[in-house]
Design goal:
Chain lengths: ~100, ~80
């Protein structure tokens, strides 16, 4: 029973990562691409962590994986926000440096 | 090959679209693809550590998860100000 649960959780994680990677490759702007990072980091990480917890229980390994998943959960929104801000700043700087068009 | 190693191999295949995205687009768009690749590599390394049954291997994705945040913030600052 636990093997089936582990297999399902791993399949969910792999499928999420595939879809999110395809989304990052297909979308055109950086803002659109940024939306596809969150599911892989948050849900994919949670699925892998839960699968390892089911597989090995309360061990040092599950503690380390919990720390890894926690780091992914914390770093993902911070990096997403910082990247979106950098993209906005670059766009603003570029539009300010270009001369205004006369209509 | 057990279940964990199979899942890790399958997950590593999602690096292909990430690599394609890294090679195309502007600097910020490429950086987003690098972020996605970091997540994929961290998760697949966790799976590999469990698949090989070596607890010490989990230190590598742990270090990568820590360094990805610091390195990413530095990279973003460079993109925002100087690049």
């Amino acid at each position: 029973m636990s093997n089936i649960a582990v297999a399902i959780l791993l399949a969910v994680s792999v499928l999420l990562c595939w879809l999110c990677a395809l989304g990052v490759a297909v979308m055109r702007t950086a803002y659109d691409k940024l939306h596809f990072i969150a599911p892989a980091g948050l849900l994919g990480g949670a699925a892998v962590g839960l699968a390892l917890f089911i597989d090995s229980g309360f061990t040092t390994d599950s503690g380390k994986v919990f720390l890894i998943v926690l780091l992914l959960w914390l770093s993902n929104p911070v990096l997403t926000y910082a990247t979106a801000r950098a993209a906005f700043t670059r766009e603003t700087r570029r539009s300010e440096s270009e001369p205004e068009r006369k209509v | 090959m057990n279940l964990w190693l199979g899942a890790a191999a399958a997950m590593l295949l999602s690096l292909i679209p990430c690599c394609w995205a890294v090679l195309h687009g502007h600097a910020v768009e490429r950086f987003v693809a690098v972020q996605m690749a970091q997540i994929v590599v961290v998760l697949s390394m966790v799976m590999m550590a469990q698949g090989y049954g070596r607890s010490i291997y989990l230190d590598i994705p742990l270090a990568l998860a820590v360094l990805a945040l610091g390195g990413g913030l530095v990279f973003v600052r460079f993109l925002e100000r100087w690049l």
